[in-house]
Automatic annotation (TrEMBL):
Coiled-coil positions: none
Pfam families reported in the protein's UniProt record: Oxidored_molyb
Cross-referenced PANTHER family: OXIDOREDUCTASE MOLYBDOPTERIN-BINDING DOMAIN-CONTAINING PROTEIN, PROTEIN-METHIONINE-SULFOXIDE REDUCTASE
Gene3D superfamilies according to UniProt: Oxidoreductase, molybdopterin-binding domain
InterPro entries given in the database record: OxRdtase_Mopterin-bd_dom, OxRdtase_Mopterin-bd_sf
Organism expressing this protein natively: Actinomycetospora atypica
Oxidoreductase molybdopterin-binding domain residues: 38-183
Name of protein: Sulfite oxidase-like oxidoreductase
Length: 203
């Protein structure tokens, strides 16, 4: 039986996992490491997370204090701008909604900057970290997050390209204006929606 190119082409299209955004491929069980700076050694006992800037109640939590606030799990996909996606993975931590409820953003707070212990920064509109879209996490698939993946604690904002998810997070600043972070200054898109393929500035 002759199989035409067109037939194979069409089959390939329909076989594509609908969870993969355009231009992305599935890494399966593996999980690539992408780090611009050298991997820091962050002591979980000394680590803390602060939310400051345009908030009524600037707050700092130790890891113990964060864990006492409750536990949320994200189960789903993550997408890196370098074209890999990891499907149906899970992270455990606390929703940013819970933390912002405590810190109380002022009405003029419209952007956030995530900042790592290493000074890596990434910027987001506040709408991208509220309403069940962002988490501070300490476990991946039931195990502590490894150092190279941002352990002991990182942030995840999985509906956007993963450069918006700071590893070794230590501060979240609330601002009334947008302030480009590390990759945004270096030509990446300001928002980074994988479904709109917002990879680079101007996409
Ligand atoms: N501190 C810090 N956070 C970071 C990065 C980084 O270089 N430094 N890289 C970002 C990018 S581009 C991606 S794709 C993810 C990679 O996370 P992973 O190494 O755990 O896959 O972390 C993001 N957070
Ligand atoms: Mo990335």
């Amino acid at each position: 039986m002759a199989i035409t190119r067109g037939f194979l082409g069409r089959r390939k299209q329909t076989d594509r996992d609908p969870r993969l955004p355009p231009g992305q491929y599935d890494v399966g069980k593996s999980w690539p490491v992408l780090t611009a700076e050298s991997t820091p050694r962050v002591d979980a006992e000394k680590w803390s997370l602060s939310i400051d800037g345009l908030v009524a109640n600037p707050t700092t939590w130790s890891l113990r204090e964060l864990k006492a606030l409750g536990t949320d799990t994200y189960q789903g996909d993550i997408h890196c701008v370098t074209t890999w996606s990891k499907l149906d993975t899970s992270f455990t931590g606390i929703s940013l909604d819970t933390l912002l409820e405590i810190a109380q953003p002022l009405p003029e707070a419209s952007f956030v900057v995530e900042e790592s212990t290493t000074r890596y920064r990434t910027n987001l509109p506040i709408e991208d970290v509220t309403g069940g879209k962002a988490w501070i996490v300490w476990e991946h698939e039931g195990k502590p997050i490894s150092r190279e993946h941002g352990g002991p604690v990182r942030m995840i904002v999985p509906h956007l390209y993963f450069w918006k998810s700071a590893k070794w997070i230590s501060k979240i600043h609330l601002l009334d204006h947008d302030e480009p972070g590390f990759w945004e200054v270096n030509g990446y898109h300001h928002r980074g929606d994988p479904w709109k393929e917002q990879r680079f500035d101007g996409d």
